[in-house]
Amino acid sequence: MTRLEQMLGETPYVAYLYGYPHKTAYRPFTPALSLESVWAEERRDALFLYVHVPFCEMRCGFCNLFTAAGPKQDVVDGYLGALVRESRRVKQALGRATFARAAIGGGTPTLLDVAGLETVFDLMEGTLGADMRNIPVSVEVSPETVDAEKLRVLRARGTDRVSIGVQSFIEAEVAAVKRPQQTAQVEAALDLIRSTGFPTLNLDLIYGMEGQTEESFLFSLRAALRFRPEEIYLYPLYVRPLTFLGKKARAWDDLRISLYRAGRDFLLSQGYTQVSMRMFRAPHAPDAGGPVYRCQEDGMVGLGCGARSYTGGVHYSSEYAVGSREVRNIIASYSERTEASFGEVGYGFRLTSEEQRRRYMLLSLLADGVDLGAYRQRFGADVLTDFPELAELETHGLGRREAGVLKLTPAGVERSDLIGPWLHSEGVRELTREYAWR
C-alpha cells in the first residue's frame, strides 16, 4: 500500500495548505541573514504586499492565527510605531519595486481606529510605494469592529475587496466555537459594507461545528446569498493545538465531507464557480484587474508579527505562537525593535532547488493545475519525472490531464487538505512533526 492509499483510508482533513512550506517548518537562522542578501536576486516587478494586524476583540475557539485579544491602546500604538520603522527598513532593502496585490489581514485590521488604519495605508502607499488605487486591495473585517467611518476610509484608500468572517448565521453554532456573535449585528455589518460600494464582498463560512446539520448549513448559505457576495469561502472546522476547541477535546462527529458536498452543490446550483476547495466566485464578480500576480512565481513582502515574506530561496517571518502569553511577548519584542534591527532576517526556511520545484508544483496543482509545458520551461525538467508520485492522482481518480495541464478532479478538489500534506517533502514533514506548539 502506498502512502497516498493509506491516507485515503483516513480523514480527508489533514491540513490546509495556503503556502508551502508551512510556518511550523520554520526555524531560527544562525547566523541571521541580511535583508539585502535575501532580496538580492529576487524579481521585484510583481510583488504581493501584506500587512498583519495581530489584534482581535476576542479569540474564536477554533483560531490559531497569530493574534492577541483585547489589546490596550498603548500596545496597539507601540506596534504601529514598529510597523512604520519596519516598512522604512524594508523599502531601503527593496529599492525600486512594483506591487501587484496588497492585503491587510490579522487578527482584525478594523480593530484599529481610523487613525491607525490611515497609518497602515500611509506606510503601504507612501513608504513602500504601492499604487493602492490601481491594484487589487483586500482587507479583513469583523462584524463587531466595522462602522461607517472605517469603511469609508478603506474604500477611499483603494480597498476593493472586503472579507468578513461570518462562520454561521445561526447563533447557537457560533456560540459552540466560542464566538458570541449576534446575527442582527452581522446582517447590519453586511448591509453597511454593501452600501459603501466595495466591488467585492467575501463571506467566510465554516462547516463541521458542533450541532451543525446539512439543513442548518444550507440555511446559512441561503442567508449569505441575500447579500449577493461576489465570493464565498467554505472552511472545514479544524481543532488545533492550544485553541479553545483543542483544549475542550470533544469527541469528533465528522460530518464535514457531507456538509462540504451539500454546500458545494448548492453554490454551483446558484451559478457560483468553484475556484478551489474553499473558494467559490459568483457570476457577477468583477475580474481581479491590475498587474498579473502568480503566487507560485512572484514574491511577497510581509510586514508585522505573523506576516510571512517569500523570495525564491528564503521564506521568513517573526516567530509564531498561539498561546496568549507567548503572542504578547512576541508583539512586545517586535514593538521595541529599532529600524536598523529590521535589516536582519532571523527566522524562516531556506528552499533548496527541489523545494522550489515542489512549491511551484503544489501551489499550481491546488489552484488551476500544473501546466506541464510551463513547468518544463521554468525548470528544464518534466514535472512527472521530478514528482512521479503525481501519477497516483490519476490512478485514484483524483487528477487528470487536460490540454497539457494536470488538474484535480472534483474528487481530488474535495481532498485538497489531504493531497497537499501528502505532497510535502520528507524534510518538511519531519520539521512539522518536531515543531513545539506554544
Automatic annotation (TrEMBL):
Q: Residues of the signal sequence?
A: none
Q: Which SUPFAM superfamilies match?
A: Radical SAM enzymes
- Residues forming the Radical SAM core domain are 41-278
Which PROSITE patterns does the protein's record reference?
RADICAL_SAM (PS51918)
Q: Which GO terms describe its molecular function?
A: 4 iron, 4 sulfur cluster binding; catalytic activity
Q: Which GO terms describe its cellular component?
A: cytoplasm
Q: Could you mention a single GO BP entry for this protein?
A: porphyrin-containing compound biosynthetic process
Q: Which PANTHER family match?
A: COPROPORPHYRINIGEN III OXIDASE, RADICAL S-ADENOSYL METHIONINE DOMAIN-CONTAINING PROTEIN 1, MITOCHONDRIAL
> Would you tell me the protein name for this molecule?
Coproporphyrinogen III oxidase family protein
Organism of this sequence: Pyxidicoccus fallax
